[in-house]
Fold this protein.
Amino acid sequence: MTNRPQTAKINKDGVLEIGGCDVASLAGRFGTPLYVMDEKTLRERCRSFVSAFKSGYDDSLVVYASKALCTAAVMKIVSDEGLGVDVVSGGELYTALKAGCDPKKIYFHGNNKSGAEIGEALEAGVGRFVADSFEELRVIDELSSSSGSRADVMLRINPGVEAHTHEFIQTGKTDSKFGIDRSKAEEAVDLISKMKNVNFIGLHAHIGSQIFDPRSFTAELDVLLGIAAKVSSEEINIGGGLGIDYLEEEGAPTIESFAETITSHFRKHGKGMKLVLEPGRSIVGPAGVTLYRVGVIKDIPGVRKYVSVDGGMADNPRPILYQARYDAVIGNRAGDKRTEKVTIAGRYCESGDVLIKDIMIQPPSVGDTVAVMCTGAYNYSMASNYNRVPRPAMVLVSDGDAVEIVGRETYEDITAKDVVF
């Protein structure tokens, strides 16, 4: 199943296993909610991206978009697999460096980088700044001069391409906070040519997230290549955005078919330049599963059966933000038939805190372990302490072993910065 980790299986006892670990045991050992990451799926998806793009266009680089999931362990794994890292803040940069990522393969993004963050990136020697505005170019030049360094810069271009995805995750349409308008690209390159401490390297764009139609990316490429024909560009970076199957029937492109579409187009029109892409969700999303414990079941006859779990919108805000849909199973009885329609609700004080509405699932009981699939991306990274609930732990599973890679927060962690006066 494409919406589950590669190692997912139902064992002889009818319990779901991930990475050789049964989810009921994981829930008992580490508590719930619990983020579970399958190491094999994570590594295999990294390798598939690298192999598919290298096969189609040798001078290519896959850069992991760390905003999807940024922990030191995950960053180390993707770096070990040969990927670069895309960061958008000083915190993500710090995590990448702590994980041992090669600074020269770090791409520093963000539409409003602070002067302090730019200074930190210069000190670290990041490989590329992806500049989002004329103002940022001036700040990079000024700070580079002060520190006696030089910065290699790519321009983030707003390509005016409207990808077919949720409005909130479209980033390349004309009305967007991101990027320099494509009509001003040559002006930006000219400005860089007059700067003593900034080198122009190439062009970047990002059109959105959870995109299934590869033609959106080739349209983006055509815009960037058209600009590159007028300026001296060494690299073209198409950003990320490849979608994944949250539900089995969705039909996202495979990594290999996506790579073939992009690289064949680039071979025809971009030869001589480096091709860079920045997948995030499509690497970590399918590797993740979140485990919850059923606490309360409320059956409203003729209306709906609510199954409330011990997490929700604070550990997975995507349903309430984007109306995102997920699949789930009762993990400790995953081998049973799905015979009941329920709504899996969260514990937070919001009526909209619903993880999955009207899902067919195994008959639930209080104390069951609910496993929600495809939660590797934009769950932990957007988690909060709403209602002052500690954020979950995260474990990495492989060959029957589970290692905690993010510790569960405590009440003391939450209140550590509070001041009483």
Notes: The two ends are 55 Å apart (CA to CA). The mean pLDDT is 94.
